[in-house]
Amino acid sequence: MPKPETLPIETIFVPTKLKKTLNPETVAEIAESMLDIGQQEPISVRLDGDRLVLVEGLHRLEACKALGETTILGVLVPAELAQPKPLLAERPEVEAERIKMARLKQLRLEKEAAEAATAASRGVRQAEAPRIRSAKGDRDNAKASPDRAAKSRSLSDWITQQKGSGNRY
């Protein structure tokens, strides 16, 4: 591991890709920490012609700038070691997990569709053969159903009929 050295901040170039990851809250937290205990971890830079290119330590660099510092502790790393780490989404195990989750989602959607189709077919069968219910009071309304009115009788009529036929109730 190379020895940390003091580097002038104005000579450090920050790639656009790194700038997009800047979180102002993190910069503020690191700046507060630097005020209390100083810079604990050096940044990593590589040489590109006559300028230094930031490899790692964007938030530390921005915290030093916010504090008005003109220099920062940094380590010069060879270009071979400065290759960016593969993004999380580019790693094979992450891709395998993504494929697995996509398949599970597809299976869940297929199951929900099958359940919905089953429920819909049950609903169609019930709609094809609806239960016939008479409106409340039809039994007492001779105009609503003349046959029914003729068949309706009182309990005492039924008992009398049962006695006459020899049935025991």
What tags apply to this protein structure?
alpha/beta; 169 residues; 48% helix; five-stranded mixed beta sheet
Q: Please, could you describe this protein's structure?
A:
The chain is α/β, with parallel strands linked by helices. The chain contains six helices and five strands; from the N terminus they run ββααββαβααα. It has helices at residues 16-19, 24-37, 58-66, 92-128, 146-151, 155-165; strands spanning 5-8, 12-13, 43-48, 51-56, 71-76. The protein has a five-stranded mixed beta sheet with strand order 1-5-3-4-2, covered by helices on one side. The longest helix is centred in the middle third of the chain and has 37 residues, at 92-128. It starts with a strand and ends with a helix. The model has no long low-confidence stretch (mean pLDDT 78).
The radius of gyration over CA amounts to 42 Å
CA(first)-CA(last) distance: 105 Å
- Give the overall form: rod-shaped
Instruction: Report the biggest beta sheet as strand number plus sense, adding barrel if it closes.
Output: 5 strands, mixed
Number of helices: 6
Q: Strand sequence of the main sheet, in spatial order?
A: 1-5-3-4-2
Beta-strand residue fraction:
5-15%
Low-confidence stretches: none
Average residue-wise pLDDT: 78
Order of helices and strands: EEHHEEHEHHH
Per DSSP E runs of 2 or more residues, the count of β-strands stands at 5
Given helix and strand content, the structural type is: alpha/beta
Tell me roughly what share of residues is in helical segments.
Answer: 40-55%
